[in-house]
Design goal:
Length: about 325
């Protein structure tokens, strides 16, 4: 049986045109495509970066994130075994590499911005080295903040089996970790890099936190998918969000980007607030008062006083089955 199948395959193979045709006719089509691309790139409305000025590398920025996590959570994201005896050497080596990489990327970001905006000399190299060192010196502060975030996750989630599980696997903590580093770069007005960082976190976790947002300590995002936190959002201490929460801006008129670009457009969430899943809170003048609880699937565009519960009226559910229908209020 196998011999017959093999013979049939050979017969079919010999019927095929096995001669290899030269690819020259295909290659001859390429110059026309290239000419069209060149013409598009000459258009001022087209985008490219074909200049001698360097541009930050997305891959290097992602590497910075990995380096920072190894420094902030030593022993969790390394293959080597760490002990107290070699910890100081390890941290020194990692921090030195982080500083060097960070300096290169920040300098590239400043140089690119100077060229793009035709700015006078801003001493990009000097400024880049200075800011890089300041950020490295603030790593202990970021570490302290992240420690409060980890404890908030453990205290707020009964499903958490321990701190290790949160550090290794919680998407909320990953997004917050990357945000806190990006936020520090944003405060020093480093172009491009903070947004590359937080959008990388967005692609991994589904959590979109703008690096310009202000977020206090002990911040916990449970589950996390679909959370959006806009640029001018202000969040106090001990705040908990669930999946699908949007802290966004009200819709803007067409071509209003420049007019509203540097104004507060996103809400303020005060201390000890809990916001449940799929709730949307919009507007720069909207304040959710301290210790308030906002239920799920709610749309808010005006302020809420402190110590307030915001809940939807219980809906009527329709149960259909066994050839009959009836209406029953939820909870009865």
């Amino acid at each position: 049986m196998k011999k017959k199948k093999h013979t049939k395959f050979l017969d079919t193979y010999h019927q095929c045109d096995t001669a290899i045709e030269p690819a020259t006719p295909l290659y001859e089509k390429i110059p026309a495509v290239v000419r069209k691309l060149m013409k598009l790139l000459d258009d001022k409305n087209s985008f490219s970066h074909v200049e001698p000025i360097p541009i930050p590398s997305s891959e290097s920025v992602v590497q910075l994130i990995h380096q920072a996590r190894r420094i902030l959570f030593p022993g969790y994201f390394t293959q080597s075994t760490l002990a107290r005896a070699n910890l100081e050497y390890y941290l020194g080596q990692e921090t030195t590499c982080f500083l060097e990489n960070l300096s290169r990327q920040i300098i590239s970001a400043f140089q690119h911005d100077c060229f793009r905006l035709n700015l006078p000399c801003t001493k990009c190299s000097e400024q880049g080295h200075e800011i890089s060192l300041k950020i490295v010196q603030e790593l202990p502060t970021i570490k302290k903040l992240l420690d409060t975030d980890i404890r908030a996750a453990y205290e707020g989630d009964p499903a958490a089996q321990g701190y290790d599980e949160i550090i290794f696997s919680y998407p909320g903590l990953m997004a917050i970790s990357i945000y806190r580093l990006g936020n520090l770069l944003h405060k020093y007005k480093v172009p491009v890099i903070p947004r590359i960082m937080t959008e990388h976190a967005h692609s991994l976790t589904g959590i979109d936190i703008h690096p310009g947002a202000t977020i206090g300590e002990s911040f916990f995002i449970d589950h996390g998918t679909g959370v959006v936190i806009g640029e001018t959002t202000e969040i106090g201490h001990n705040v908990r969000l669930y999946q699908g929460v949007t802290l966004g801006a009200l819709s803007l008129p067409k071509d209003a980007g420049d007019q509203f670009r540097y104004k507060k457009r996103h809400p303020t969430i005060e201390d000890d607030v809990i916001i449940y899943s799929n709730t949307t809170i919009l507007g720069g003048q909207t304040v959710i008062g301290a210790r308030s609880v906002v239920g799920g699937n709610i749309w808010i565009t005006e302020s809420v006083p402190p110590d307030t519960k915001v809940l939807l009226k219980r809906p009527e559910l329709i149960y259909a089955g066994n050839g009959r229908k009836k209406m029953q209020k939820k909870g009865k």
